[in-house]
Amino acid sequence: MSDSFNNIWEIYTSSWKAESAEEKMALFQKSLAPGCVYTDPLGKTHGWDALCSYMLDFHKQIPGGHFVTNYFLAHHEMSITKWDMCDASGNVLSDGISYGEYNQDGQLIKMTGFYQTP
Predict the structure, then answer these.
(1) pTM value?
(2) Which residues are paired to 111 by β-bridges?
């Protein structure tokens, strides 16, 4: 099951790089439960619309910004990842750790990011 959680995580991660709301929503359908909760040191969202808006604001601050997973480990519908936040050219801007929780269908229901705030 760890491999399928890793696949779901990577689909979710790719939604941060997607540039349009439509692209993000298409990726959400493949990876996130509709009522998912996202939390990081700077914000908290509930549901696809709020998360999409949060991600679009992220792109305004860091055009082309995205995340690259360096480490993934999962068990019992939970995962932890280590990642780099990169700019459009792939330069590493910062790093962090995320915790994920999955429902019985393998969709993410909770994503929590940890990183040093600017």
Answers:
(1) 0.94
(2) 38, 100
Q: H or E stretch including 94? A: strand 92-102
Does residue 42 contact residue 65 with C-beta atoms inside 8 Å?
Answer: no
Q: How many residues does the chain have?
A: 118
Instruction: Give bridge partners of residue 31 from the DSSP assignment.
Output: none
- Annotated domain spans of the chain: 2-114
For residue 97, pLDDT beyond 70: yes
What's the fold here for domain 2-114?
Answer: Nuclear Transport Factor 2; Chain: A, (3.10.450)
Gap between the Cα atoms of 47 and 110, Å rounded: 10
36-70-59 Cα angle (round to 5): 55
DSSP alpha helix (H) spans, the chain: 2-17, 21-31, 48-61
